[in-house]
Amino acid sequence: IPLSRKISRDDIEKLEEVLISADVGVETTMEIIKDLKSKLSKSELTGSDVLVLLESHLMGILGEESGIEVNDKPFVILIAGVNGSGKTTTVAKLAHYFKSRGKKIVLAAGDTFRAAAQDQLEIWAKRAGVDIVNSHSGADPASVIYDASQKAMVKNFDIMIADTAGRLHTKKNLMEELRKVHRVAGKAIEGSPHEVILVVDATTGQNGLAQAEIFGQAIPLTGIILAKLDSTAKGGIAVAIRRKLGIPIKFIGVGEKIDDLAPFVPKDYVKAMLE
Amino acid sequence: QLTNRLNNAFRSLTSRGKLTTKNIKDGLQEVRMALLEADVNYKIVKQFIQNVEDEAVGDKVLTSITPGQQVVKIVHSKLIDLLGGKASPKISLPRSNPTVIMLVGLQGSGKTTHAAKLAVWLRNHDWNPTLVALDIYRPAAAQQIQTLAKQIGVASVLPSFMEQPLGIAQRAIKEAKTNGWDVLILDTAGRLQIDDQMMRELEQLQFKLKPDAVFLVVDAMTGQTAVDVGYEFARRVGIDGFVLTKLDGDAKGGAALSLRAVVGKPILFVGTGEKPDALEPFYPDRMASRILG
Ligand SMILES: Nc1nc2c(ncn2[C@@H]2O[C@H](COP(=O)(O)OP(=O)(O)OP(=O)(O)O)[C@@H](O)[C@H]2O)c(=O)[nH]1
Ligand SMILES: Nc1nc2c(ncn2[C@@H]2O[C@H](COP(=O)(O)OP(=O)(O)OP(=O)(O)O)[C@@H](O)[C@H]2O)c(=O)[nH]1
Ligand SMILES: [Mg+2]
Ligand SMILES: [Mg+2]
Questions:
Q1: Sign of CA dihedral A97, A88, B139, B206
Q2: Residue B293: helix, strand or coil by DSSP?
Q3: How confident is the prediction for chain A on average, in pLDDT?
């Protein structure tokens, strides 16, 4: 967009490509474009005016920075999401994040289904230097979460992070299994799970909205972690999720190493989306 | 439902004469939105809509169906063409003693799972497949291949301590000849197409091993970046076909159109579940219907 000269309605149309290409989605993009056009009809705007307006509109949707406030003990974080989104790696990253802040952590290897899922989290637990509770393949995931909850209470852990198996939200039996895990967590520890996080792959398109919607109907989501933002994807579906469902983005995954987790900063995210 | 939306857009149209440019433009705006909501790439949608418009102008209005249905019919058949035509693509692999298939793609797309599925499919077509684990980075990646191989009853070649992907693959090729494995399925680590070091690893594997087929494994829920990913993998490594995964979900799968349009190679298989038997051939007409919703 030419920054200094006056902007026309056609120029604003061109912004549509920027937003759609960022996976913001048709509906949210049309709302933003409509708003910009109405501002244009009230006064002349330069390219840099439009950029500032666009940034503030997106920031308005994304809201204030929101992290994970560990305000109970043991504090339980439940991680869910579709297959391959980055959950297990995110569990490891969160463990490292809180351990480096002096917290005592235990993990629950809640994926008892996929090949080598337990092995994968065990290796991460060693690398992070945290405890882990696992079981045998085919065990009831709720029982792993129950055992980990017991251990967290008895052994005085600060935080318990529960990994779950990937599942497509279209599979009713798997969503029911997730509901059960959530229920059992709540029965084992009062107020648990305190944080219920949906891990969304930043390369996901519009299906990400359906994921947040359906997962959110099964369990009460408190936050999103947007993984793989180090890819060429802008993760714009997070904007649509925030706008339509009000779920805040708490962290972003920016790589495959244990320290590749960063707090979600709306200003930085929007700047990266628009460059 | 796209047909309903189109019928609404064409409510005022009389049922005689030819489809005018205005009718088509209105109808195609609805189609455009449907394609973007289905994750088809922005630039590809623009091109596609223009092509349909050029083709549809002057078409006689058919009296047996509504103008909305007619536009959908034109769009649907054009989508099928773009996805490779009516028939499922034929998969023919040369017998190379051993034949080598390499799976590549972004992190978490489903490569390892589909290595196992391809092994089952090949065995059902009279091959003797073996899985080769070339992912030396992801924790327990080799165990995942080992477990899957055991589940489906095929052999696997796993990394030895400190062994690099090229070495593992070359060893697997040697072992194939002595063990009578006629096809090797190489599972590689997930990687970003912008990770130069990891892309160079694939370039080297392709250059030294000369695989008979390199398949890009793509998640059906991939959004607008599918084009960048497909283009870059094709440019640097060379792609012979695609495997579109997790189609048992409700992602429309518009990435399929983007990949086919940009790389010009066929989608050969679709993944429809987590188990080793959840692999189907790709049907362009089913995909076109799915994308249009
Ligand atoms: N580049 C990049 N890769 C990531 C990121 N987070 C996870 N990954 C990679 O994505 C792949 C899948 O990660 P997992 O943690 O196994 O994903 P998952 O959701 O637990 O997968 P399932 O349990 O099989 O559903 C792995 O190769 C990870 O290294 C990220 O932020 N950036
Ligand atoms: N429902 C469904 N799940 C699938 C399908 N294909 C793979 N998965 C699941 O997706 C997740 C990721 O699969 P992997 O095979 O580990 O993916 P990958 O590409 O090897 O991942 P990296 O090696 O980390 O890059 C696992 O939970 C699989 O079970 C599919 O077609 N349908
Ligand atoms: Mg996992
Ligand atoms: Mg893998």
A1: negative
A2: coil
A3: 96
Whole-angstrom Cα Rg for chain B: 22
Model pLDDT for residues A85-103, shown as the tens digit of each residue:
999 999 999 999 999 999 9
CA distance B279 to B116: 10
| A218: amino acid identity, one letter | A
Tokens at B110, concatenated: 């489903």
pLDDT confidence of residue A133: 98
Three-class DSSP category at A192: coil
Cα separation, A141 vs A160, in Å, equals 15
b/e map B53-91, b = 16+ CB within 10 Å? beebeebebeeeebbbbbbbebbbebbbebbbeeebbeb
Residues B154 and B130: beta-carbon distance below 8 Å: yes
How would you class A251 by CB atoms within 10 Å of its CB: exposed for 0-12, middle for 13-18, buried for 19 or more?
buried
Buried b (16+ CB within 10 A) or exposed e, A210-246: bbbebbbebbebbbbbbbbbbbbbbbbbbbbbbbeee
Q: Which atom of ligand 2 is least distant from the CA of A171?
A: 1
pLDDT at residue A5, as a whole number: 82
Alpha carbon distance A84, B10 (integer Å): 42
- Nearest-angstrom CA–CA distance, A235 and A12: 22
Query: A-contacting residues of B 100-159, CB under 8 Å?
Result: 106-110, 137-141, 143-144, 146-148, 151
CA A189, CA A130: separation in Å to the nearest integer? 20
A188 falls in which pLDDT band (50, 70, 90)? very high
The reported pLDDT for the residue numbered B226 is 98
Hey, are the CB atoms on A115 and B143 less than 8 Å from each other? Answer: yes
| Distance from the alpha carbon of residue B177 to the mean position of ligand 1, in angstroms | 35
CA of B135 to the centre of ligand 3 (A): 16
Tell whether A21 is within 8 A of chain B (Cβ): yes
pLDDT value at residue A67: 96
When CB atoms are compared, the residue of B42, B108, B141 closest to A201 is B108
Q: What is the pLDDT of residues B147-187, one digit of tens each?
A: 999 999 999 999 999 999 999 999 999 999 999 999 999 99
Band the pLDDT of B240: cuts 50, 70, 90. very high
Determine if residue A253 is left, alpha or beta; phi over 0 gives left, psi from -120 to 50 gives alpha, anything else beta: beta
Query: Would an 8 Å CB–CB cutoff place A170 in contact with chain B?
Result: yes
- Cα–Cα distance for residue pair B132/B129, rounded to 1 Å: 10
pLDDT in tens, B44-75: 999 999 988 887 776 666 666 777 777 778 88
